[in-house]
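Input (structure):
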């Protein structure tokens, strides 16, 4: 028996979704850890005084890729359509 348990729900305002189950919270934690790993690999934690513009651009690129890929992965687990919302 296949069940489609949702991990996320569409936001009431703006574009996006937020976690509503433990799987969603775990997935959110994984996203945060991936973004922190990118910051670490670009020297934001190890040598913050010598972070170059190239490191910042690389970090922003990493965050964009992580966001797009994981949004596509999490979209089937989201209750409601992903669209801009102005409230109920």
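Output (sequence):
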């Amino acid at each position: 028996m296949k069940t489609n348990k949702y991990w996320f729900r569409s936001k009431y305002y703006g574009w996006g979704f937020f976690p509503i189950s433990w799987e969603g919270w775990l997935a959110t934690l994984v996203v945060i850890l991936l973004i922190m790993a990118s910051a670490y690999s670009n020297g934001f934690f190890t040598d913050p005084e010598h972070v170059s513009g190239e490191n910042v651009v690389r970090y922003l690129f990493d965050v964009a890729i992580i966001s797009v890929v994981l949004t596509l992965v999490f979209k089937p687990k989201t209750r409601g359509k992903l669209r801009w919302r102005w409230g109920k």
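Notes: The first helix runs from residue 22 to 41. The mean pLDDT is 89.
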